Amino acid sequence: MFYVYIIYSKTFDVYYKGFSENVPQRLLYHNENRSKYTSNKGPWDLVYSRSFETKKEALIEELRLKKLNRKSLEALIQDHK
């Protein structure tokens, strides 16, 4: 399985959208400051994830999420709960 995820930093009030085959491991990676963009902006909380059967589908969805404005992103997260 392939996953698209959104994590949120309450400290910096910022969202990060990404792709992974292992979301829990990737979240740990972000919280250990091992990712350039998310480094020192945590702690990060997982607020959204969605699975896909193919890598191509997941990457297309990740690109779509990255184009969303904040209001649309927050609506998506709220609808997912």
- Which outline best applies? globular
Radius of gyration: 12 Å
- Structural class per helix/strand content? alpha+beta
Range of strand content = 25-35%
Low-confidence stretches: none
In round numbers, the mean pLDDT is 95
End-to-end gap: 21 Å
**Amount of helix:** 40-55%
| Number of helices, where a helix is a run of at least 4 consecutive DSSP H or I residues | 3
Structure write-up:
The model has no long low-confidence stretch (mean pLDDT 95). The chain contains 3 helices and 3 strands. The protein has a 3-stranded antiparallel sheet with strand order 2-1-3. The chain is α+β, with helices and mostly antiparallel strands and 81 residues long. Helix content is 41%, strand content 30%. A hairpin with a 4-residue loop joins β1 (2-9) and β2.
Helices and strands in order:
Blueprint: E1 2-9, E2 14-20, H1 23-31, E3 44-52, H2 55-67, H3 70-80
Antiparallel strand pairs: 1-2, 1-3
Kindly list the characteristics that best describe this protein.
81 residues; 3 strands; alpha+beta
In short:
This protein is of the alpha+beta class. The chain is built from three helices and three strands. It has helices at residues 23-31, 55-67, 70-80, and strands spanning 2-9, 14-20, 44-52.
